[in-house]
Amino acid sequence: MARCNLLLSQASEPAADVLIIGSSRTGAALDPVAMERILSVELRRRVSVERLSLGHSPLRAMNGLLENYLELRGAPSVAVLEVMFMTDRSFNRLAQRRFPAAPEDYMYLRDVNLLRFEFEQLLGQSSVAMPFTRSEGVLNLWSQRLKGVLLRLGALIYQAVRHPKQDWALSACTRQDWRWEAGWPPDFAFSYGEFEPATDVASLIEDSEANVARTAEAHPLSDWQLGFPDGLVYPYDFEAEYRQGEVSILSAMIERLIDQGVEVLLLPLPLYGYELDHAELLEFASRFPGRTSLFDLYGAITVNFDSLWYDDGHIERSPVGQLTTALMARRLLESPALGQPSSRADD
């Protein structure tokens, strides 16, 4: 998965019209292949949609992948950027799986190969780790960069010694895997394949919501969903000390996109049982006036789909995934950066 994201970020192709950036929650909720077809039909021209998504909300990794994308492929018209912060709950899930690394180190072990092995990135990007960062001060930043340099160089040497003739850039996946990520389990597949909408987006949403309502009514709650407390606010805590580093990275990503003339849609995706603090999120979005707005995707669903969350961070691939994809497409149709429908469809 990491290598597919890396190849997608540096492919020798023009930038997509819509670039989706986020965690596994974004991957489960938004299908780029289906969204591409919906937007193309509605706008009567070809609209390209791509998605960079990795599990466990790796902001540093996504920052590096976004930089790759902008440098090598150019800027998309619209970026859908998940507000993807780590939480104690995420760490607890790792601990329950007996993950051997400390929370601040696990990203090093998993995604050490995400960035290009080039000098400017070895020292120019912070290491791919430290989800709870208290400070982005000079000493902290450079200590992370140096640790990242050592680990990435070590990985590069390991690859060269073990397989000296292997072209690692071509060994990861095919272009279809960038879009479909076929290796994922069936209930976590990120695409429906060649999706062709049979109706307009409004009718698709109406039909999908009816399907979700029917399915959810017949679907019992899981044991972990029973007795879940109500009224929990998703722990964004933008002003909290432990969150400062992540906020600085997210802010830098937004500012980088805006500098490239990209329209940015911020996408909060709360865990099961949490509610959004809309005031906090709107205040954060207001820090980037002009080309940044907030879209509450789950809040746009008008039917109860609680029983269809298959764990505490994701929704089932179907039928909710089709609904969230259609809702996101409808919101994107309001984006000035995508323009108005053309008079005829492009080939």
- Could you say which overall geometry the principal axes of the C-alpha atoms support? globular
Helix percent band = 40-55%
Spatially, the strands of the biggest sheet line up as 2-1-3-5-7
What's the order of the H and E elements?
A: HEHHEHEHHHHHHEHEEHEH
Report the sheet-strand fraction.
5-15%
Offer a few descriptive terms:
alpha/beta, two-stranded parallel sheet, disordered C terminus
Commentary on this structure:
- With 347 residues, this protein is of the alpha/beta class.
- It contains 13 helices and 7 strands.
- The strands form 2 sheets. Strands 2-1-3-5-7 form a 5-stranded parallel beta sheet, with helices on both faces.
- Helix 1 packs parallel to helix 4 and helix 10 runs antiparallel to helix 13.
- The longest helix is centred in the middle third of the chain and has 25 residues.
- 37% of the residues are buried.
- The C terminus is likely disordered.
